[in-house]
Specification:
By secondary structure, the chain is mainly alpha-helical. It has helices spanning 5-15, 19-31, 35-54, 70-79, 87-104, 120-132, 136-156, 161-164, 170-184, 189-203, 219-238, 247-260, 277-289. The mean pLDDT is 97.
């Protein structure tokens, strides 16, 4: 597994490989499988992402009743052409909510990189595919780009909210989606790395403060901001805007910030929004219902 953007970029340049191909070949070497087997497995993951969006049930609510049905409200609002965001961005927002709510309602999702951040990648990738008429094969290549990015973050920092806060979950998902979107838009490996650096920088320090310890509030709606952050970071990089801090250093900084966070801000449900009077009341009510 690659442990730095620097290494992937070096391999891409030395061997004249696109980012996704470098990651695929590394996976084949590490897993001792053929390119075809690796690609088919990755394609199945992308198809499962699409299904997690398509199988959204607008009538479901989570067991706690704190989340569910909001994605349908947003879709209807979008349908009435009232949203401040344009068509593409509004569809990204709806999808992010759909998949994140599906997770809270115990439907099948792809943890990419975690269940709590599962709405970010499908929201961006499926909407890009829809907007540009891309094939599932092309989207699978984009998923290799995303997985390479996630692998670097996992190796250098963390993907777990309990270790690094929500910056490690939503932040990482946002960086992965940004890099994949840049690839799908024709950006090179340098633009991919810059988009990731900017996406992570924008969400650095985001705490993990689930109300009642459930991956619902504020987790579900943070998938929306992660997806929107991804597409804005992708467009910045595609415009030729560079991150002044290299992507590897941004990941290292994220790790350092995560270690500085108090335990109450790392998935314990003891700080942030979880510690507010309303957060505490909701927690108590749920405990009394059990």
């Amino acid at each position: 597994m690659f442990t730095s953007f620097k290494d992937i970029i070096r391999v891409c340049e030395e061997r004249s490989l696109p980012f996704w191909k470098a990651v695929l070949l590394d996976d084949c070497r590490e897993s001792d499988i053929s390119e075809e087997a690796s690609f088919e497995k990755m394609k199945s993951i992308y198809l499962a992402m699409k299904e997690s969006d398509a199988n959204y049930d607008p009538n479901l609510r989570s067991a706690s009743k704190m989340v569910g049905r909001d994605a349908e409200k947003l879709r209807l609002y979008q349908q009435d052409h009232q949203m401040l965001c344009g068509g593409f961005s509004s569809r990204v927002m709806v999808r992010a909510l759909r998949v994140a709510e599906s997770n809270a309602c115990m439907k099948r999702i792809v943890a990419a990189p975690t269940a709590g951040s599962c709405g970010v990648m499908p929201a961006v990738l499926v909407t890009v595919q829809e907007a540009r008429g891309l094939s599932d094969e092309e989207m699978t290549r984009a998923l290799y780009v995303a997985s390479g990015i996630g692998g670097i973050i996992a190796a250098r920092a963390s993907l777990a909210g309990a270790e690094g806060g929500c910056q490690a979950e939503i932040g990482s998902a946002s960086a992965m989606a940004a890099g994949a979107a840049v690839y799908l838009s024709g950006g090179d490996e340098h633009a991919i790395a810059d988009s990731c650096a900017m996406a992570l920088s924008n969400l650095m320090g985001l705490v993990c403060d689930p109300v009642a310890g459930l991956v619902e509030v504020p987790c579900v709606k943070r998938n929306v901001i992660g997806a929107m952050n991804a597409i804005s970071s992708a467009d910045l990089a595609l415009a030729g805007i560079r991150s002044q801090i290299p992507a590897d250093e941004v990941v290292d900084a994220m790790k350092s910030v995560g270690h500085m966070m108090a335990p109450q801000l790392r998935e314990t449900g003891q700080g942030g929004l979880a510690a507010t009077p309303t957060g505490q009341r909701l927690c108590q009510e749920l405990m009394e219902e059990k």
